[in-house]
């Protein structure tokens, strides 16, 4: 990165997926906050900044040692379960409550309160796709209301805020930015310094495959075969064949790569029951080196480190009973990837309600959306080749956490933290676009990775 480190804070930071992406794009995160106590060990193990555990509705913005308006970016993803279709139905089923009156969907107002306090040059707010169809008590689209509040055209509850930001709202699919997972999320990008907010469709790096051949794993050539000539550019290292080091975020690419798939994401990771133990347990050592371009990036090895010396962290799944293992084995290529297509007599659930309650991930496609529900069961995230649900490390890979990102908490909490996170690679794409288009701050040349 350039010598200039732009400053940011991360509200509702969780494990720190958004903070990681900001860091990788050249931002220095000064502070984070989350209400979940179990996120603190994870956040502090991976980030060099203060993290507060607390209810943001009761917290006052801390003194960051900056003058008003000196902070560059306020970022965060207010948890708004009422904006998702599932969240709405659950809340409406609770006696005496409805999704409009549930106060959790107003947490974004505290995001705006922090924006008002620091008056950052820009902000980045993430939310679920369901917000697009949500309406307030007056029947007005919630997104329109929030944009008006961010522009200072509408009051924010009983808060006296001074906001005057131009805003762009976009729904993004993480697969379009190199992440081996389909995950649609809504992003609000705003700034008050008169710049145009980036159109993230112009920053996409990946696309839908054109044919079956493009769905195959994308093998990575041995990095030791690279030329020793200086081929670094402003956008990343360029190999002898003209391809760029992953990831290479830049505006208006002439060509895009096919989506990264489940195979690209996780198939270099070893089986968790190599001896056939039941239930599956965990593996703590890599058995082979990285294979795909994404896997080379995810291993995140230092120049002096060999893959055989790298510890394998969090590669552990939950145990399964024999009935589940048998059903898991049944699914896959040659039958169907979802249990709803299997003959009725073998159905463990009502197919009219839960056709995809059991789902094996297709290795030739990006994964389905990784969700926090993984902490309860893994039925919708069955490994493509093994009769088990995915591990924490595999879920983290599919979310674009590098293997060096540690989750030093119980497996249950780790699954929840992974599922709730903003994919770091998507955050990096957004932060790179913001850095480039709003702050006009260049990205430093990256050097070729040394042979292992």
TrEMBL record:
InterPro entries: C5-Methyltransferase, C5_DNA_meth_AS, C5_MeTfrase, C5_meth_CS, SAM-dependent_MTases_sf. It is an enzyme of class 2 (transferase). The keyword Lipid metabolism does not apply. Its EC number is 2.1.1.37. Signal peptide: none annotated. Keywords: Methyltransferase, S-adenosyl-L-methionine, Transferase. GO terms for biological process: methylation; negative regulation of gene expression via chromosomal CpG island methylation. It comes from the Archaea. Pfam families: DNA_methylase (PF00145). PROSITE patterns: C5_MTASE_1, C5_MTASE_2, SAM_MT_C5. Residues 200-235, 263-283 are annotated as: Disordered. Coiled coil: none annotated. Residues 203-226 have a biased composition (Basic and acidic residues). GO terms for molecular function: DNA (cytosine-5-)-methyltransferase activity; DNA binding. Belongs to the class I-like SAM-binding methyltransferase superfamily. C5-methyltransferase family. This is DNA (cytosine-5-)-methyltransferase.
């Amino acid at each position: 990165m350039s010598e200039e480190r732009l400053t940011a804070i991360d509200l509702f930071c969780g494990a720190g997926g958004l903070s990681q992406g900001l860091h990788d794009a050249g931002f220095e995160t000064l502070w984070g906050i989350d209400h979940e106590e179990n996120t603190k060990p994870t956040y502090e193990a991976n980030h060099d900044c203060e993290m507060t555990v607390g209810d943001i509705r009761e917290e006052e913005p801390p003194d960051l040692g900056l003058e008003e308006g000196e902070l560059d970016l306020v970022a965060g993803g207010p948890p708004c379960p009422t904006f998702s279709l599932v969240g709405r139905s659950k809340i409406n089923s609770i006696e005496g409550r409805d999704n409009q009156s549930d106060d959790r969907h107003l947490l974004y107002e505290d995001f705006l309160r922090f924006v008002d306090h620091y008056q950052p040059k820009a902000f980045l707010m993430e939310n679920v796709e369901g917000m697009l169809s949500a309406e307030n008590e007056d029947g007005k689209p919630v997104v329109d209301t929030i944009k008006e509040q961010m522009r200072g055209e509408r009051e924010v509850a009983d808060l006296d805020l001074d906001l005057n930001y131009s805003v762009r709202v976009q729904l993004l699919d993480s697969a379009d930015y190199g992440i081996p997972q389909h995950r649609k999320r809504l992003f609000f990008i705003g700034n008050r310094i008169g710049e145009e907010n980036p159109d993230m469709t112009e920053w996409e790096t990946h696309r839908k495959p054109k044919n079956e051949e493009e769905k195959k794993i994308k093998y990575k050539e041995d990095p030791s075969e690279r030329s020793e000539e200086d081929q670094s550019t402003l956008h990343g290292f360029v190999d002898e064949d003209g391809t760029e080091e992953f990831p290479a975020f830049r505006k208006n690419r002439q060509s895009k790569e096919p989506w990264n798939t489940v195979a690209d994401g996780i198939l270099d990771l070893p089986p968790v029951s190599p001896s056939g133990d039941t239930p599956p347990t965990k593996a703590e050592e890599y058995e082979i080196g990285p294979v795909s371009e994404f896997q080379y990036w995810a291993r995140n090895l230092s120049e002096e480190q060999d893959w055989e010396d790298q510890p394998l962290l969090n590669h552990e799944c939950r145990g399964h009973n024999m009935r589940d293992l048998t059903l898991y084995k049944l699914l896959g290529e040659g039958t169907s990837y979802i249990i709803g297509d299997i003959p009725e007599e073998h159905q463990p659930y009502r197919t009219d309600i839960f056709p995809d309650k059991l789902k094996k991930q297709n290795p030739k496609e990006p994964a389905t959306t990784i969700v926090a529900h993984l902490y309860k069961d893994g039925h919708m995230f069955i490994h493509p080749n093994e009769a088990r649900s995915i591990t924490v490390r595999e879920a983290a890979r599919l979310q674009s956490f590098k293997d060096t990102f540690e989750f030093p908490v119980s497996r249950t909490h780790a699954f929840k933290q992974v599922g709730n996170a903003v994919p770091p690679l998507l955050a990096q794409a957004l932060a790179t676009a913001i850095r480039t288009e709003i702050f006009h701050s260049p990205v430093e040349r990256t050097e070729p990775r040394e042979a292992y």
